[in-house]
Amino acid sequence: MKWSRNLRTLRRGIKLATRITKAKVDGPRVPPSPPPPQNSRLVEFNGFGDNPGRLRMRAHLPPAVAGQPLVVLLHGCGQDAAAFAIDSGWTELSDRLRVPLILPEQAEANNAGRCFQWFQPSDTARDAGEAGSIAEMTQAAISRFGSDPRRVFVVGLSAGGAMAAALLAAYPDVFAAGASVAGLPVGAAHSGMQAMLRMVSAGPNQSPEAWAAQARAAAPADFAGPWPRLSVWQGQADMTVAPENGTLLATQWQALHGLSTTAMAEQVRDGVQHRMWSNGEQRLVELWSLPYLPHAYPVGTRVIAPGRFVEQAPVDATVEIARFFGLD
Predict the structure, then answer these.
(1) Where do runs of H (alpha helix) occur along the chain?
(2) What are the DSSP calls for 215-278, one per residue?
(3) Which of 11, 52, 187, 271 is most buried by its number of CB atoms within 10 A?
(4) Domain containing 198 — which CATH number?
(5) Mind listing the pLDDT tens digit for each residue in 37-91?
(6) What are φ and ψ of residue 151, in 5° steps?
């Protein structure tokens, strides 16, 4: 019976991979980005580093203020980085708080669906591949904009969410905190096929400490902490990334911080479950579970264009993530 279940899971993974690949290659193009708000700029930077992952560096820049935090926003598969930043509300928040927004963008030459390759060890290792490129962008931005190096954050959706978690593990000395929406745990997959399988069937089945060890293995050997904080978001109606992945990612980070898997605080509002783990001084890990949210970024009552993987929901992720980071 177990072999039969595994075979069915494999078939589902193959079908999903085929469907996603076809949609990426043959599907409609993402609509062009709306213009940025007045008094802000959407710019592109070249020469920010060696760029081992061959990524594009774009940035949304409000009127400059030195000493501000910095946010790195990672799009999902097939998304336009600037359009996602606007749809999700991050450009609006960037302008209001005068926080620069870095928008790494994947290239079709790397991945046909323009997915960040969170499952490839060569793209998530420190100073290598796509993770290396994003880290170079971040360091260049800190220097260029005079950002506060103690308040650098990363947020991502789907493949971007999984890559955000991978960056927190590989660069815990760079990022103070992060947020992963519809992402997966660090080390959940090490190839494209494994990634598809883990998207439809979360795993592998291992202890919280074993999950934490996967993240520790990505960090510099001499890293002594503290580890970045993490906000995890997962729709329970997600048919692309199994919702159990959100629970595993939160479990991984709880163990990394030496916390119990039992939530220290819990709130339920409009069906949305919000569980929190703290060290007594600040929230280190949180898990938001949204009952009717599909594979998308929740934007509260914000009006958005259809088909961009952003959805209305009882809670606005950008508002709550900014609060978790201490931005607002």
Answers:
(1) 2-26, 81-87, 90-97, 121-124, 129-145, 159-170, 192-200, 208-216, 244-256, 317-325
(2) HHTTS-TT---PPPEEEEEEETT-SSS-THHHHHHHHHHHHHTT--SS-SEEEEETTEEEEEEE
(3) 187
(4) 3.40.50.1820
(5) 455 689 999 999 999 999 999 999 998 778 999 999 999 999 999 999 999 999 9
(6) -130, 65
Q: How many domains does the chain have?
A: 1
Range of the structural domain that residue 218 is part of: 2-325
Identify the bridge partners of residue 311 per DSSP, sorted by sequence position. 298
Q: At what angle do helices 208-216 and 159-170 cross, to 10 degrees?
A: 70
Residue 78: which region, alpha, beta or left (left: phi > 0; alpha: psi -120 to 50)? left
H or E element: which one contains 288? Answer: strand 283-290
Q: Which residue has the tokens 């594979």?
A: 295
**239-282 pLDDT tens trace:** 999 999 999 999 999 999 999 988 889 999 999 999 999 998 89
- Amino acid symbol at 304: I
* pLDDT tens-digit map of 166-223: 999 999 999 999 999 999 999 999 999 999 999 999 999 999 999 999 999 999 999 9
